[in-house]
Amino acid sequence: MITAAKELEKERVSLATYIYKMLGTFMGKYSDDPSEICRFFNFNMLKNPAPEKETEFGGEVEAGKTVTIVQSNFNKDSIFTIENTGPTDLKFCLAENADEETPNQGVTVQPGMMVDITGMDLGNFIFKFFNVKNLNTAGPGSYLVTLID
Amino acid sequence: MESNWSHFLDNTFEISTRGSRKLMFSFAMDLDGKLSAFPDDVFIKTNYDEFHTKFTAYWSKFSNYNLSKGSLRSSTVAVSRLFSDLSPKQITAIDVAVQSVFSYETPEYAGLFPEGHKPFYSGERALRLTALKVLQAAMLEYPDLAEASNIVLVIANELELQMSNQSKKHE
Predict the structure, then answer these.
(1) How far off is chain A from B165, nearest CA to CA, in Å?
(2) A98: Cβ–Cβ under 8 A, 6 or more apart, which residues?
(3) ipTM higher than the 0.90 cut
(4) Is A105 on the interface with B (CB under 8 A)?
(5) Per residue in B81-90, pLDDT tens?
(6) Which domain covers residue B149, as residue numbers?
(7) B115 and B32 share a domain?
């Protein structure tokens, strides 16, 4: 999926660049009546984009602290791709409250490791807070999470 | 001063669709449909032909990505469910099979489960799988546990296979 995502992102930028160039051509053609351009380009779609169901989150967490990565409605089959990009062990869990660890639940990811897991693996998926705890009390940790809801 | 005005030159299509592959698809699909409605207009047709080629390439990658995502989801759910079943359903069944040969107090039982059930229930998945393999190897010492050993082997092999599939689909 990582390869497919990278290829798609490259293609998105390429297509967006082409449309931008095409808009320039249309602006030249319809410079006397720019409203003609709106017959083709639906700018309203870009104004209020619907929230994407897949989201990436990256961040740091101070030594020994627990922070909320995102608050959302999860389900047992929500997919979390978690990468520990820092030098410390990190524990990821679903919690009832912000910035709070849920004891005996969740998944610990070691530095440099990447795991794909479901909401079911992170504890009670009824909980709305996806939190991370830095298990090391000496230094900060960092992570990158992709959530596919 | 120049930077205050430069946003007029921003590529709004690229900026608005950052992190939203679906929006890029929807917007381009809409544009494609509108441009295709004027096949007799030379200006529109010329632009449409080139745009449509670019859009088709994006559509292909978009479909491929969604396919990959679905595949990863499927394999991730499969692995999660297998590990979920491992604790406690299957381990309890294995324990019962072992206790039918060696009771809880025997040194053989202690040798097979030196840390109890914990290594199968908690910790990293790779370590839990390793614990299963160690158990399976230890069970081979006892012919009476051959059947139970085979069950553990089947479970371990299935976990390993699904984890390997998941890993491939992640890439």
Answers:
(1) 12
(2) A68, A71, A129, A131
(3) no
(4) no
(5) 888 877 677 8
(6) 70-170
(7) no
